[in-house]
UniProtKB/TrEMBL annotation:
<feature type="domain" description="Flagellar hook protein FlgE/F/G-like D1">
    <location>
        <begin position="95"/>
        <end position="168"/>
    </location>
</feature>
<dbReference type="Pfam" id="PF22692">
    <property type="entry name" value="LlgE_F_G_D1"/>
</dbReference>
<protein>
    <recommendedName>
        <fullName>Flagellar hook protein FlgE</fullName>
    </recommendedName>
</protein>
<dbReference type="GO" id="GO:0071978">
    <property type="term" value="P:bacterial-type flagellum-dependent swarming motility"/>
</dbReference>
<comment type="similarity">
    <text>Belongs to the flagella basal body rod proteins family.</text>
</comment>
<dbReference type="GO" id="GO:0009424">
    <property type="term" value="C:bacterial-type flagellum hook"/>
</dbReference>
<dbReference type="Pfam" id="PF06429">
    <property type="entry name" value="Flg_bbr_C"/>
</dbReference>
<keyword id="KW-0966">Cell projection</keyword>
<feature type="domain" description="Flagellar basal body rod protein N-terminal">
    <location>
        <begin position="5"/>
        <end position="35"/>
    </location>
</feature>
<keyword id="KW-0969">Cilium</keyword>
<dbReference type="InterPro" id="IPR037925">
    <property type="entry name" value="FlgE/F/G-like"/>
</dbReference>
<dbReference type="InterPro" id="IPR010930">
    <property type="entry name" value="Flg_bb/hook_C_dom"/>
</dbReference>
<dbReference type="InterPro" id="IPR001444">
    <property type="entry name" value="Flag_bb_rod_N"/>
</dbReference>
<dbReference type="Pfam" id="PF00460">
    <property type="entry name" value="Flg_bb_rod"/>
</dbReference>
<dbReference type="InterPro" id="IPR053967">
    <property type="entry name" value="LlgE_F_G-like_D1"/>
</dbReference>
<dbReference type="GO" id="GO:0009425">
    <property type="term" value="C:bacterial-type flagellum basal body"/>
</dbReference>
<keyword id="KW-0975">Bacterial flagellum</keyword>
Length: 273
């Protein structure tokens, strides 16, 4: 009976965690480049009331008797699936279609292991002629170096970006080309969220490999970089609301388990009376 109380408590606690994940997904339904998450459960330890016994030809076998002790969160997995592309008409808005992440750095002296990765492709040209995101982080090329497109950004007459991420810039110094790089990982679901639509490499994700979109025999062989587009969140509201309902009902069922267990304890106490 006491076991059922604690099982109900564990169910309520972990359903609350699942609700937190769902709430964060719904809150970010319109966040550019956001990847939704999913909370997975697993059962806790089981207490054995009777051990299994094999049949010996004289007596039959006996199956084990075990009582579960509740539930816990097995993991919170990121869904790195493709989000829908939205047209913006702005050249420096970039959307990745396929695998890969933009590498960005907080400052020009950052080492590779201090780099961040993102699918948010809203970039700007700052006063120094560098491509930066909304937080001022530098966009990097396929070698991991920051992209500096012009010493005199005020003289730029044209700037175009191809599907492979090649930037062609014409300014007072002439025409020059630069290359946007895309990073891939052995396990991108192992990336660590760092806030601000940023991810960092981890031991689970493995090291980053930088390539050019469309390069054969690489992780980005079928990827393209689309100028004048942004990748929207991949949150599916239909799934999220269905999960919200089942999570709420699961929470209520576990609360009912606690209430019923309490009533049974009350009946036990009333026997003495």
């Amino acid at each position: 009976m006491i076991r059922s109380l604690y099982s109900g408590v564990s169910g309520m606690k972990n359903h609350q965690i699942r609700m937190d994940v769902i709430g964060n997904n719904i809150a970010n339904v319109n966040t550019v480049g956001f990847k939704s998450a999913r909370c997975n459960f697993q059962d806790l330890l089981n207490q054995s009331l009777r051990s299994p016994v094999g049949g010996d030809g004289t007596t039959g076998g006996v199956n084990p008797s075990q009582v579960g002790l509740g539930v816990t969160v097995a993991g919170i997995a990121n869904n790195m699936g493709q989000g829908a592309l939205q047209s913006t008409g702005r050249t420096l808005d970039l959307a990745i279609e396929g695998n890969g992440y933009f590498m960005i750095k907080k400052d020009s002296g950052d080492a590779d292991d201090e780099a961040f990765f993102t699918r948010e492709g809203s970039f700007y040209l700052d006063n120094n002629g560098d491509l930066v995101n909304s937080n001022g982080y530098y966009l990097c090329d396929d070698a991991g170096a920051i992209i500096h497109v012009s010493d005199q950004p005020e003289t730029i007459s044209s700037l175009t970006i191809s599907n492979t991420g090649e930037i062609v810039v014409t300014d007072s110094a002439g025409t020059n080309t630069y290359q946007i790089g895309l990073g891939t990982f052995p396990n991108d679901t192992g990336l660590t969220k760092a806030g601000q639509n940023l991810y960092q490499a981890s031991a689970a994700s493995g090291p980053v490999t930088m390539n050019i979109a469309g390069t054969a025999d690489t992780g980005v062989a079928n990827s393209t970089i689309n100028s004048c587009y942004l990748e929207m969140s991949n949150v599916d509201l239909t799934d999220e609301f269905a999960n919200l309902i089942t999570t709420q009902r699961g929470y209520q069922a576990n609360a009912r388990t606690i209430t019923t267990s309490d009533q049974m304890l009350q009946e036990l106490l009333n026997i003495k009376q």
